[in-house]
Queue: 2 jobs
Job 1
Amino acid sequence: MQWSLFLLILTGQCSLFTCGHYDYHFIKENKTWDEAQKYCKENYTDLATVSNMTDMKRLINSIESQDEAWIGLHSYPGKKNRTWYWSLPGVEYMENKDDWGKGQPDDNQGHFENCALLIDRKWHDFPCTDSYKFICYNETNQSNKTCHVISDKLSWSQAQSYCRVNHTDLIRGLDQLDHCAESGSYMWIGLFRDTWMWSDGSSFSFRYWESLSTNDLVDGQGDKKCATTVLNRAGKWSFDDCNNTKPFICYSEFFLIKQNKTWVEALNYCRENHHDLVSITNLDEQSWVQERAKNASSLYVWLGLHYSCTLDFWFWVNDNRVNYTNWAPNKNSDDCDMSAAMEKAGQNQWFKQPDNKRFNFICF
């Protein structure tokens, strides 16, 4: 890579302190949910999407208001519309009948059973309002992951709140249970189902309901429901008739560009039309970017991570430090004219690719 281009990259418009990947915008105009959605799509990206507690805190801290406001979560109630999710944000539920007990899930006697209980290492759907022991998951870093059996008997939502305050979240998957599951015990795990969907099509499972059980949120048929964040109550979520009018919150963030360009062409496009090629500095940002990458028309999408042959190191083009990485096991060595691209499928890992290959890319 030529030294002049390297200098161009290092003097990009974004700095670590002035550039965010997405921003929340409070719109103090009373609109129905559908009107608010249309406004946000025309003027920003969409109605607010919240992927985890970090997003929720950013939303609350960035908005000076005590109003109740629409966010981008909405639901068409009914049993047939339910989808299973893991409580831990960024982890996608994969269907595997072998994980479930015989005949499960079954909505026993026609009741709504929307939370998963572990019985003899098999999953069973149970009413979320029942009280049982539960298993928390704790992750301090990528190499230190533990689980903890909590003997107090709580409802599923109470157990989720406890785990999020004291650990990371409720546990997911049988692979994490080998050294902490008690044979024969009835214990909540982090699997639930509901009918709620994000306006922008994201699959984020994060929920922040105020005193609402999962059963309350799926019972009944008929009219569409829309979610609100109640800003004078720590931003906790409620819901209302979508035809009522309220202020609302939009967001602006990453943009997937479905054009195949070389890495340098992608870099120039982002700087001319947005801010820069995207950088990823933590797991939260990885979750946001991989949601966009899933819709790419190429097998990979360019990221703003480049290898400098002259200085012999990898760097983000907007000067962020390379602390978090998600490299795939790859035989490619570090070489001149190489940049990072995220795979659109699988585990959305990063691969070293020659700059002259042509992929979609993500700007912010």
Job 2
Amino acid sequence: MSTVEMEVFSNPQLIVLTILMFTGGEVFTSVVGLHLSKYQLKRRWTNGGLVSAAHAHHIEVMSTAETKQDSENLESGNETHTQRDASLDLKLLKSNSIRFLGFVVLGYLFLAHFLGISLVLFYLAIVSSASNVLKTKGLNKVTFSFFTIVSTFASCGFVPTNENMMVFSKNSGLLLILVPQVLLGNTLFPPCLRFSVWFLGKFFKKEESGYLLSESNKGEIGYLHLLPSLHSSLLVVTVFGFILIQFILFCSMEWNSDALSGLNSFQKIVGVLYQVVNTRHTGETIVDLSIVSPAILVLFIVMMYLPPYTSFLPVNDNPQTSGRPKKRRGKLLEDLIFSQLSYLIIFIILICITERKKMKEDPLNFNALNIVVEVISAYGNVGFTTGYSCKRQLQPDSNCKDKWYGFSGKWSDEGKIILIVVMFFGRLKKFNMDGGKAWILL
């Protein structure tokens, strides 16, 4: 969510923002978590597993010196030793599998960024219209390429230009380069990761790859993004299904609207595709959302609200729910926890209270729908905004100047603080996905 124009940042500041976006991205933080869990597992295995192995070896040596009368005890000792060896091998395989998965995710991360940055630089080198935009705005091509790819892959939605991607609406090649980055870093990360593990397992680390892809070990790794095979397949179908629905509705309602004016048919198709892909959850835009029809805005709100790994899963194959014991409902705290939607309604009401004066004086800009778009966009970590226009003021202010930043940039400090809370709440929503179950609606 931007409250200042992006072109006010200098080149060193953009580099700092690029580093922050890269290290704060979901994929990068998951890599850090994998390596931490690997070291914790290795420490526990070293403290417990190696001692057990040495003890088992000692039992084996002592057992070989036993007499024939103690043959039954010897067989029992060998059986115990075999079981301990198997347990030790399983722990070692688990540790190696987590290590392998960490390197796969790290390679996936850097390969996606390398290809994306290389393609953007190549496009800017051969297409003068895109490079001229950067030259006019005083932006460095390399900085722009790194910043945009990192922001797109990490689902931040920031672009170094004030107008976001609207200034590149006619550069269909650039938009097509960014579309895979949106999907690879967000909604399609689990199926692409599973495919990467399977593909690399064909050439090396077959045992570790088999362990990671095994349905029986799906709860052992504890990596949220490595979904089961069926769930990953249905996730792909769901993602492209949502894109198709949005694409058809957007084209049918906005094809001849002012939002897509000045574009030819091919540019409109690519632009609409880019726009609907960004609703989950990157938030880059080529159109002014304030002139888009309310029906499309409501559709975008629904898309922004849905978590990135939402899928139609008709069977109980969710590793987070299957085989998990039901929680006791006797605890007062659990009963008082609301659902995600309930908290969002509370946040919207609070912001309507803090901005009630502006909603009364400037209703065309400060209307309920624009506030809902801003709040759900913040919750979904998307970044879509309807912006603010001085032309929509009922009582024109001679000192008002249109700025290329988000609608929340015109909010009061109290409203901005609430929106910051909403962004943190949306980032951590996976820890409260079971809330609100004490409420029974009949």
